[in-house]
Amino acid sequence: MMGMVVTIDGPAASGKSSVSRELARRLGWKWVSTGAFYRGLAYAALQLDVDLDDVKTLAELTHNPVWNVSLESERTKVFFKDQDVTDQIAHEDVGNFASRISHYPEVRKALLDAQRNCSSGPDGLVAEGRDCGTVVFPTAEAKVYLTASSEHRAARRATELGLDQGEMVKAQKQRDLQDSTRKVAPMAIPDNAFVIDSTELNLSEVVDKIEAYVHSKIDN
Ligand code: DC
Hints:
Bound molecules: 2'-deoxycytidine-5'-monophosphate
Number of strands: 8
Shape: globular
């Protein structure tokens, strides 16, 4: 039995995590940040000195119980050797390593089942990432693509992490380029997605719009 799935895709720091967490809270559904799978794997590889271009070992590491992802209502947590490393994986350099390894089809394929399993059970799921509406949950009932200007996104993430905004613009541009130009499952707007530019909107305005859209799908 599978509950309803809403996907929220979009570029780095477009507000996907805050928006999907709040949406899931309002709907009483589960939520998952699928980036945590890529970040967790990159983090585990770095800790274990696995070469980030050694695709075979990376694919094997996806199933190694030394790390795991746990869905919690406030955050998608990552554990490494039973330690909560959710704060560590939030760093932009881990995001960049995650983006690098996400280019490998073998890695993407190996992580797919674990991401799809998040929708098992009768509860609804809000899933956010880059390819949730296109590849992970192509039959999702509601699909959203969330974006915002690159300056706005960089300012948001720089404030969150206490970093320089100019450096953040550069780092995010590089990551967005990597994510949207990769050969396999590039970041893309899913067909029939509800597209929202959040540059001029606050969090609750964005969530209001998505919630109304999801209700229109539930009522259909
Ligand atoms: O959403 P995030 O910043 O936590 O994602 C980190 C990286 O993981 C992102 O730059 C690319 C990769 N990723 C992906 O390829 N597909 C997803 N569904 C989610 C993340």
